[in-house]
Amino acid sequence: MPGCKTYAILFPAMLQDYLLLAVLLVVATIFPIGGLITAFIIRPHRPGKIKGDTYECGLETIGETWVQFRVQYYIYALVFLIFDIETIFLLPWAVAYNQLGLFSLIEMFIFLALLLGGLVYAWRKGALEWI
Amino acid sequence: MPPFENLPTDLVLQGIFLLVAGLIVVAAVAVVTLRNIFHSALALILCFSAVAGLYILLEAPFVAAVQVLIYVGAISVLILFAVMLTERVMDPKMGARNEQWWLGLLLTAIAATGLGAIVGFAPWPLSKAPIINDQITALGKEFLTTYVLPFEVASLLLLMALLGAIIIAREKEGG
Prior knowledge:
Chain A is mainly alpha-helical.
């Protein structure tokens, strides 16, 4: 196939896997911007006071738009971050699992147990309760 | 015959690099110049994403995945939350200018000089070692054999961060 040959010349093997990702990225960028531009071109332009009003879910907004959120939400984000990092550590272990012995399994259990302790603490303290 | 068949790979890579690097610079400048701090945070996410592209160009897919998962996925959420949790963040009466701008300028000048010196004088040696094909497996093996202690300490560090965050948040709630 001549098309494939072009890719092989233009991109080194490692980067060829990302070609699809790059195409997706470009399409994903063009799609919303193109939609907005098309809407801007074809829509009727008759502004009015009521039309220009700010609304939320069809109703007029109540109070300030920028409000201070409760600090508890920060805990959710932090707990998410910590278990996100844990996932990153789990991945190499899982990939290399077949080449590692029983010792690695115990090590990973210690790793997980420590973090599980943190989760239990967070739970018991009620930090995970949705307010 | 495709039109670009004779174009060398290096030129394409250079082009992609310039694109990614340009995006990083534009996003980074946007972070410090945008007037709405929330928009700055969004520009920072764009900057993080572009850095992931840089890692892919360096043939470090695992680091790129980490960048996307941790920085784009979690750190940016943390930053956005921090912005939204700040008191009177959108108050027009709040000065956008910091009174300690001269101190910031001084520190920035020192940091810029230091970084410039590093860029200028460092030899930047290229590693002769071949790129490992199965990076994640190699990493997993190293994590659980040679570097098992730092691995477990990382878990402890994460635990500390979690506990510390809960304790600080609880105090805030009480007071």
